[in-house]
Design goal:
The chain is an alpha/beta fold and about 160 residues long. It contains 5 helices and 5 strands.
Length: about 160
């Protein structure tokens, strides 16, 4: 299985790539974590934001294979504890399909992306900077994997 973090935005600070890579390299090949960056639409003072979000959504969806389990990251999604995330990961592994975690741009995800989702996950009701979200997701995916594999990384 491959877990793809499909995220709007490119050219992140070096610490973001380093943080993501640190946790991605810890994942085993049978549960690989891969980042797919999608170019953000250009925003100006007079931009048609609805059109930009729709176009970003189209690019995100075109980056996902047909039989992929889609999970949107959205403030309205379900908030999981880390053990609940590990249970979700167990379900995903049992399905034998790749998983795509979708992170939208500044205005969120397109309606088309939300409609395609099999489930929706909320990291928090707080708003986080998009670069930080990438690192947080990578760490939580790794932590969930360690729980499933009785690795001592996670402690309660």
């Amino acid at each position: 299985m491959q877990i793809q973090l499909v995220s709007i935005g490119q050219k992140m600070p070096a610490w973001v790539q380093q943080g993501f890579d640190e946790y991605a390299k810890r994942m085993p090949r049978e549960c690989e974590l891969v980042l797919k960056e999608i170019a953000a639409g250009k925003r100006t003072k007079n931009s048609d934001v609805a059109r930009i979000v729709k176009e970003e959504g189209e690019r995100m969806l075109s980056a996902i294979a047909k039989d992929t389990h889609v999970v949107t990251l959205d403030v309205t999604g379900k908030q999981w504890s880390t053990p609940e995330l590990s249970q979700a990961m167990q379900r995903w592994l049992g399905q034998g399909r790749n998983v795509a975690l979708l992170v939208g741009g500044p205005e969120g995800l397109s309606d088309e992306a939300k409609d395609l989702a099999d489930e929706s996950w909320s990291l928090s009701r707080l708003t986080f900077p998009h670069p930080l979200v990438r690192v947080m997701i990578a760490e939580q995916i790794y932590r969930a994997w360690t729980i499933l594999n009785n690795h001592p990384y996670h402690r309660e």
